[in-house]
Design a protein that fits this description.
By secondary structure, this protein is mainly alpha-helical. Helix content is 41%, strand content 9%. It folds into two domains: 1-30 and 108-134, no CATH class; 34-98. The chain has helices spanning 10-17, 41-50, 58-82, 88-99, 111-116, 127-134, and strands at 2-3, 6-7, 21-23, 28-29, 35-36, 39-40, 121-122. Helix 2 (41-50) crosses helix 3 (58-82) and helix 3 crosses helix 4 (88-99). The longest helix is centred in the middle third of the chain and has 25 residues, at 58-82.
């Protein structure tokens, strides 16, 4: 697996399945912690640890059940991908680190950190990889960095359709 820039989440899973991981010096991998909607599965599980069950609504309990299954499934997948390249105990520990919510989902795992985690990562990335990538330029995102909101901005007066004046204390 060649990683010229980044292989986050699913890209990291693909990297773990490869015979070799070859990264650019400044490339990064990312955690593979499962996400349920907008929430990390590991964070959903924390609710059960931190609150009495009687204070948790049914929807959150159901989400936590799904989160527990997702965490177990992803950890097993990572462990299975790594078992050919490292001892079972080391594969299980690394699987838990990558999938269990150790970091935020967007955390960049550098080459150095990947090696410290036990991954055999090379930095002998062929220059041709960058040449090939140059043949496929990425379109730029056309998102405004600043959104114009006319003033005054605040709660609307009921019935008038006009914004209520701001309290400027």
């Amino acid at each position: 697996m060649f990683v010229p820039h980044y292989a986050m989440s699913g890209g990291t899973l693909i990297s773990l399945a490869a015979d070799d991981i070859v990264m650019a010096d400044n490339a990064v991998l990312g955690p593979v912690d499962p996400q349920l909607g907008q929430s990390p599965a590991a964070s959903i599980m924390k609710v059960l640890e931190r609150k009495p069950i009687k204070e948790i609504d049914d929807a959150t309990i159901i989400q936590a059940d799904l989160a527990e299954k997702a965490l177990r499934q992803v950890e097993r997948t990572v462990r299975d991908l790594l078992n050919d390249r490292m001892p079972d105990e080391q594969a299980a520990s690394l699987a838990h680190t990558l999938a269990g919510g150790t970091w935020t989902h967007d955390y960049p795992i550098s080459v150095t950190e990947a090696r410290e985690l036990g991954l055999a990562v090379s930095t002998d990335l062929p220059s041709e990889i960058f040449e090939v990538m140059g043949l496929y330029p990425q379109t730029t995102q056309r998102r405004p960095s600043v959104e114009y909101i006319p003033l005054p901005y605040g709660p609307h007066d009921r019935g008038s359709g006009r914004p209520a004046p701001r309290d400027r204390r």
